[in-house]
Amino acid sequence: MTDKPDEKSKSTPDQNSTDNPEIQATPEPAQSEFQEKQEAVAVQKVNKEKLKEKQDLIKNKLTFQIKSLSIGKEDLHKLLHILQERSNTACDIELADYEQLELTDQEYEANKEILKEGFELKITLLSPDGQEFYGTIDDVFNSPNFPDQIKSVFVGSEIPLKVGYNYYPRNSFQLFLDFSKPELFNMSFLPSLATPNESNIAVQGYDATWTHGVYHEFNTFIKKYPSRFTWIHKHSIYDFLLYIIGLPYGFWFCYKLSSLLTNIFGKFSSFVQSAAYVYVFLVALVLFRLLFHYSRWIWPLVEYSSPKNLAFKHRVTLTIITLGMASTLICDLIKAVF
Q: Which residue has the higher pLDDT, 106 or 308?
């Protein structure tokens, strides 16, 4: 016979531990606090990484409308070389961020050479007679066919890579210089409006230091070469000059021709004589408007200066005309008063 085991001995340690609440396992407080601190540090690290990624995705863009510039060939050449140096800096930034990924060493180095070539600036220069010059800065400016007058200059640092390889660099700029002049005898253009000019520069990129540096360096450069009498190109300046100078000039013009008008239209009715004076007054206002357009034409907002530019002769001519009319008007006023 075998002895039956005691029922008390059948109970397992696990059962005893669950039946007795005094011996249940409880977590240690110190270990729980340590785990919470570790989790908090991990969350902060993830947040910092996400913030850095967002900062890398922020694109800075600065634009500037050029309202005053008078520049010659040498200074324009110098400005474009400064922009080429900034493009080389953008190339260094681009190469530092360019990853090899699954490319072989040979393909990786070949792509880096393509990037370096893509950051060499290509400019487009137009002359007033329709000729177009495209190439590197030195190739265009050293060309024997370089024009005496320039209509516009355009340069975009991202265009070679964008057009050739559909690659968009992280940092780039675009510059457009509009040297065109308003038409002299275009009476359809309202003189009260500001003179249209599309000259501007736009700098954009993910590197804020590079973007702001190029923008401020360009502004500092063009401030050294301002154009003259830019105030005549502002909005509503014609209306102000019309009331201050134009209308008195019209009345004075009628006064100077009054004896001639009396001799011609004296035999006619008073209505015809009055109409003649009104007509002469309107002609004087038209002449004043033409002189205003002429002033805008010889003193443009953005001017390309060259030795063969005839602007100086035109400015002397307008100065002589203005001084002659002003002196005659002042003499007539003195005679009338005294």
A: 106
